[in-house]
Amino acid sequence: MLLNNPQEMTISLSAGVQFENNCEVGVFSKLTNAYCLVAIGGSESFYSVFESELADVIPVVKTSIAGTRIIGRLCAGNKNGLLLPHTTTDQELQHLRNSLPDGVVVQRIDERLSALGNCIACNDHVALTHPDLDRETEELIADVLGVEVFRQTIAGNILVGSYCAFSNKGGLVHPHTSIEDLDELSTLLQVPLVAGTVNRGSEVIASGMTVNDWTAFCGSDTTATELSVIESVFKLRDAQPNIIVDEMRKSLIDSYV
Amino acid sequence: MEMEQSGMFMPAQTVGTVLCCICGVAMPPNPANMCVRCLRSRVDITEGLIRHAAIVYCPECHSYLQPPRTWIRGLEPESKELLAFCLRRLRLPQRRIRLVHAEFIWTEPHSKRLRLRLRVQAEALHGAILEQAHMVELTVHDRLCDNCTRAQANPDQWSAVVQLRQLVQHRRTFFYLEQLILRHGAAVRAIRIAEADHGLDFFFGSRSHATKFVDFINGVAPIRFRNDKQLVSHDVKSSIYNYKHTFSVEISPVCREDLICLPPKLANALGNLGPLVLCTRVTNSIALLDPLTLRSAFLDANQYWRAPFKSLLTSRQLVEYIVLDIEVESAEVHIGGSKYVMAHAQVARITDFGKNDTMFTIRTHLGHLLNPGDYALGYDLYSANNNDFDIDQHKNLVLPETILVKKSYQEKQSKKRGKARTWKVKNLNMEVDTTSKGRNDEKRNTEYEEFLRDLEENPEMRFNISLYRNKEYQPSEAASTADGDDIPSIPLEELLADLDLSEDEGNQNGENMDE
């Protein structure tokens, strides 16, 4: 399902993405406002989905981290920087430094919890981290990514990087988050949050989808309801639409979620 | 919870609502993150459960078959035992499914169908537990169980018989045994009970029942028995032999109140007990009392049958005497639960009394009961003609002229004759052969009357017998309270109220008022 807008930046939501028959898009890719990392996969179809959406705007880089393909869960980054675990090889580090834009600081950090993607969830202004992260790592995050760091849990889970995904416009969290927690997090992050699921009821949000300010990619199992929730919370629908599309839309859609 | 109790501040946690990922309806989050309807439409947890089963029922004895061979009785329709039985037949997979509730849905009994509604819980995807209702229909097949087939094929088929015999001229023992058997329920498994001359025949379906009955009789009477079997059929292939077993049981001919002359060897073995003894009580051992010395002895069944002896005189030969004078000689002696007092008495036979002057001066053990002017029953050895081998064996034996046995209430009881008693006894249902020769109904009835009178007079005989209150008894206005000497009668406390299960009268529960 693709909602297209003939503007410079097409706001879009891609569903039906699969990496080697696996719907966990967020595991094999990392999407930020400045760049996109994609795992080296078997077939090119995964890469081509990202290419087709983003090629004109931001660089789409094929890479591996620590020799693995689960790059989305190992690294954390935003438009200011990228943090890599200590297991990243020198070649990968060099490759990334070369491929990414100059404004992006690529840093390899020494942290006991090496799956940084599971431990850190961030947008361009705020980051939520695993409560047990080292002090130095926290300072590094604040420096490299240029964000305010908050140690939090989501619905009692310490792996904040897995159970929530947020951009500068909105965020989606674990479905079991209580209303008070939701309010608290929303205040911290200063974006609207909603509790929901992805990939037909999967609670691991950040594995099932990846998002930046104007695009989101979801796994193929995502149902229409989930897609509409994602669209609404990440504001992927409310762009300036074409008049024709607008008229069509009015007759096609009867209610906003 | 514990954190709250320990005083820590727990912020309120309200559960928010999420959208069901399939249908979009708002719902509280659950492990599958789908609303219940979507989950139910995707996952059917009753997938592997059986919906139709069959059970087998025997219409004769109302029992259900539990394969391979057990038949379970007592399962009422729509009872919880029947529910448990049906659930066992369904073979629910216990690891995967948990049964929360089960109940019967009413079906017409003639439809031969049982319907159950079960509620099961099982894990659907991602750990969400789903509860679903499941209906099972059980078909009831009718089939006669093995016992009923055998019973129907040949209803009179017995495989063991116990033949009880006692070679005496009266049936008192069998009246008494009948009451004992009723009280202890020893003959409930008997297929048939038939009367034979000198005894009774009990027919059983299996040898073990017959053995149990013989053991019971062994405990209440001094018997000897033998066991024989006769081959009925033989299955060559499985080597099963079917027999008819016969237990011949002989009860000792010595009865209560008999006069016995002990053989010399036995008298010596019992410590020179005077050769003439009275038998006071017969249970599984024989109690003997020497009336002239007040010594007693007990003979075990084995001891008796090693050297069996017959009675010299039986209670049919009791003669009535009138006591003219009595002189107590010794103090009270307690023997075997009864008390005796040695006394000298002057007695005369009733037939002689008033006509001639024949009197006898005797020693008697009934000193505690008799007063001058009383009537007593005793053995008339003076005029008896004894043709006993054992008596001749004793050299220099001097026989007393009379031995008194018991006090007689004959005169007073003649007034009461024909009036109903306050109590009654139940009877076994015997097949009585009315066509055989030598049967004397009148004699039978008098013997039964005497037996009932015996019961009245002897509390120790009543010990093991159930007596029931006679509802037809109405005390007459001219109640004989003016009788000087009380006729022994059974006090009301000993009588059981008969259990009456009829619906028109009020409920009378059988309370056991036994002492």
Automatic annotation (TrEMBL), chain A:
SMART domains: eIF6. The keyword Cell membrane does not apply. GO terms for cellular component: cytoplasm; nucleolus. GO terms for molecular function: ribosomal large subunit binding; translation initiation factor activity. The keyword Protein biosynthesis applies. It is found in: Cytoplasm; Nucleus, Nucleolus. Keywords: Cytoplasm, Initiation factor, Nucleus, Protein biosynthesis, Ribosome biogenesis. It comes from the Eukaryota. One of its GO terms (biological process) is cytosolic ribosome assembly. Pfam families: eIF-6 (PF01912). Monomer. Associates with the 60S ribosomal subunit. This is Eukaryotic translation initiation factor 6. It comes from Zingiber officinale (Ginger). The lineage of its organism: Eukaryota, Viridiplantae, Streptophyta, Embryophyta, Tracheophyta. The gene is EIF6.
UniProtKB/TrEMBL annotation, chain B:
Keywords: Cytoplasm, Nucleus, Protein transport, Transport. Residues 254-298 form the 60S ribosomal export protein NMD3 SH3 domain. It comes from the Eukaryota. Pfam families: NMD3, NMD_SH3, OB_NMD3. It is found in: Cytoplasm; Nucleus. One of its GO terms (cellular component) is nucleus. Belongs to the NMD3 family. This is 60S ribosomal export protein NMD3. It comes from Zingiber officinale (Ginger).
